[in-house]
Amino acid sequence: MFGWNGYFLCVNLSKKKSAVKAYDAAFAAKFMGGRGFAAKILWDTLTAGTDPLSPENKLIFAAGPLTGFALPNSGKLVVASKSPLTGGYGDGNIGTYAAVHMRKAGYDALVIEGKAENPVILHVKDKTVEFIDAKDYWGLNSFEAEAKLRKIYGRAAGIVSIGQGGENLVKFACVVSQEGRAGGRPGMGAVMGSKNLKAVVFEGSGVIPAAYPEKLKEQGVESFREILGKSNYAFWKRQGTLSTTEWTNQNSVLPTRNYREGVFSEAEKIGGFAAEEIKVANRGCPNCNMTCGNVVKDSEGKPSELDYENVAMLGSNIGLGDLAQVSVLNRMADELGLDAISLGSALGFAMEASEKHLISEKVSWGDFVDAKKLTEDIALRRGIGDVLAEGVRVAAAKIGGDSAGWAMHVKGLEISAYDCRTVPGMALAYGTSPIGAHHKDAFVLGWEVQHDREGYGEEKAAKVIEHQHTRGIFECLGVCRFPLVNIGLDRNWYLKYLHAATGMEFSWDALDLVAERVFNLVRAFWIREYKGNWTKERDVPPARWFTEPLTEGAFKGAKLDRAKYDAMLQDYYVKRGWDERGVPRKQTLERVGLGEVAAQLDRHIKLS
Q: Residue 87 pLDDT more than 90?
């Protein structure tokens, strides 16, 4: 087999034992890698109803068939598990040399179960697995832990770790690498912490097998060169995703004060041009010449790696218009191992709750000192921080009042940095995202602003599915989507890469089927974990977007129409081959090659 190594490394922390599991080419072609591998492993090996923070849950690091080759942005690693934040399938991707080293060590996925008796570090070096006492690392933030490990294993090693947020089981704790690369929004860091696993160190010295290695190298060189020649490349290098701040403000979709509004009067102070004034470096993932990480000097004189979603959620969403101060909160999130998007949502929620006297703590809009203290309180689970550490869905249930209507989440995952009162298609994308409200699975917003912006209907539903499949395949290939969606790299490069890597011919229709298969598998996982208690209400965004119109900006008075949204959601279900509840039909699962999943799911909920 080429492209794939053909092996998973399975580790039981309770027993301090490891084993290697082989898989065949048919499995590889069917599920591809990354999210596809993770979802199938979780479906096959996890008992329905497993507590996400129990030793029985699995924590998976999975790569794809293109990961680690000298190709554009090929250093991606999916980290997945049953989510403690949502109770459903959870994952995220992280750009890290750990992805490259895991592949060079001979593995396409690392599957971790059990719980170490005491804190440990897992060291995977080619075919050896070592369990290292982590008592001197527990309590360190992620930057400190990685720096200490690099003194032992060197600058080249691939390292992922958690901060205090993961140790303290904050439900939106994530996994961190390289002082600013983070992944696993739905609480993958908490799952890692629940297993007493502080870090994983990968060292691989092998060669990833390719069917046509010389051809693959040539393709890599040529496509890297194509990226450099794109007309928008120079501006991308200057601002990366941060230029989105001005764009979202102009288009009334910038989350402001817990999504009360879509415009922020100080947007220019936290945007791309403001970032250029304090920028000190660029950072990128392995094999990347787009380096989207804008490193700035924050107000405490320390480096902080920014992107749009983090800045919007820690800036306009909490009413803070000082980018240097926003950068401190962003750095703290990375150090503590907290997802910056969910953190910004939790802070905004707390500020609104304080304003409405639903909590006794005073947390004021735009107050940097309050935000900084509350960030630490969340990571360490102190006071109201202990409540917010559960995520805004649970926090709303605990503090009561009318807060459930403005707890900005879908299925428990906080919404990521785009207000949707004027973009129904993006609202649908959030509503039906495979992990909860996350933009990377279907950023239909850019298309929607240019085409029938406020319309509803079949075309919007079809476009959301198209985006979900396109982006979903990148979650399986193990490469970043940015060259395609942000720079305009010819998408046929990916078919060429796959052929040179695997020796197999793929069309985009074939990849679309893989994405559809994985999407349906993930939906089946959710329904199984919710014990068949599934209705269309789980695919509906927060009440605020339907009941509270915008009061500022060009779209003043706009809000979503619930009846039209419901009709569009049903159009979406029909196009997906799902029933009126949002449950895949038996014939749909069989058509995409998941007949065995249909048989199992039918025991939890009657399939139509």
A: yes
